[in-house]
């Protein structure tokens, strides 16, 4: 691993450049450090560099890190990736944002286990790759309408993962599709689905995601390689 500080300053510089290109303000954007591939020690070094947002994709590791940093109230914890229904009860009241809501069955379980309103992103499969999680773009509106029955779920935004091998043109297409979907959800003016956020952009594609309106970018590799 190279120097974390160097990596962070490279990421920050790239974010600033993308913001400038698209005439956006850097403070509209939240950088999430995806710490799933590193241990507590390395995560702590990133905390010391001033990062506040962290994401994990495994329940055990999530809980371990969350409890290790328990006394640090400034930290914000994101859960990304597949969450099995039987594990919902262990994490749902511990996380600040859940990025992978993609079925009514999962929504039911969250509703059953949550002791407060949970900020959720709907995961959308914009590319249609069968290996990707998420609901189809054409089903997003009806899915969100169906969530009205669940008063413990707040739809804060939409999330997607673009294919790793996508071209720049395809990336623009996928990310703008998510932004258009977001606009159509917002037009519904549902109180439980303000949908003000877009969680899109990873190490390989975050500059394009920023140009297309991302508000949360999820970066792992660029921190830790
Ligand atoms: C691992 C992961 C990331 C981070 O990806 P990098 O390419 O390492 O930046 C972002 N989002 C999700 C859902 C992930 O699983």
Model description:
It comes from Vagococcus penaei. The modification N6-(pyridoxal phosphate)lysine is found at residue 36. Belongs to the pyridoxal phosphate-binding protein YggS/PROSC family. This protein has 225 residues and is of the alpha/beta class. It has a single domain (4-223), classed as Alanine racemase (TIM Barrel). It has helices at residues 4-21, 40-48, 59-68, 88-91, 104-113, 140-146, 168-187, 206-211, 221-224; strands at residues 30-34, 53-56, 76-79, 97-101, 118-124, 153-160, 197-199, 216-219. An eight-stranded parallel sheet has the order 7-6-5-4-3-2-1-8. The mean pLDDT is 97. Residues 34, 36, 57, 80-81, 161, 202-204, 218-222 line the site of pyridoxal-5'-phosphate.
Describe the secondary-structure layout.
Blueprint: H1 4-21, E1 30-34, H2 40-48, E2 53-56, H3 59-68, E3 76-79, H4 88-91, E4 97-101, H5 104-113, E5 118-124, H6 140-146, E6 153-160, H7 168-187, E7 197-199, H8 206-211, E8 216-219, H9 221-224
Parallel strand pairs: 1-2, 1-8, 2-3, 3-4, 4-5, 5-6, 6-7
Bound molecules: pyridoxal-5'-phosphate (PLP).
Keywords: Pyridoxal phosphate
Function: Pyridoxal 5'-phosphate (PLP)-binding protein, which is involved in PLP homeostasis.
Cofactor: pyridoxal 5'-phosphate
């Amino acid at each position: 691993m190279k120097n974390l500080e160097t990596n962070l300053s490279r990421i920050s510089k790239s974010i600033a450049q993308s913001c400038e290109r698209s005439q956006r303000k850097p403070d509209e954007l939240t950088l999430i450090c995806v710490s799933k591939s590193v241990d507590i020690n390395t995560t702590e070094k990133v905390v010391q560099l001033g990062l506040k947002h962290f994401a994990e994709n495994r329940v055990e590791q999530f809980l371990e890190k969350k409890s290790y940093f328990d006394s640090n109230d400034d930290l914000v914890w994101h859960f990304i990736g597949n969450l099995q229904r039987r594990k919902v009860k262990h994490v749902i009241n511990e996380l600040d944002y859940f990025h992978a809501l993609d079925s009514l069955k999962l929504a039911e379980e969250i509703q059953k286990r949550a002791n407060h309103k949970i900020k959720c992103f709907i995961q959308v499969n914009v590319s249609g790759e069968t290996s990707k999680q998420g609901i189809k773009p054409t089903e997003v509106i009806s899915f969100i309408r169906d969530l009205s029955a669940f008063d413990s779920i707040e739809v804060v935004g939409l999330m997607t993962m673009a294919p790793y091998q996508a071209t720049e043109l395809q990336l623009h297409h996928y990310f703008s599709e998510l932004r258009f979907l977001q606009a159509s959800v917002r037009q519904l003016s549902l109180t439980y689905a303000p949908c003000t956020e877009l969680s899109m952009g990873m190490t390989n594609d975050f500059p394009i995601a920023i140009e297309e309106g991302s508000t949360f970018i999820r970066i792992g590799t660029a921190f830790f390689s």
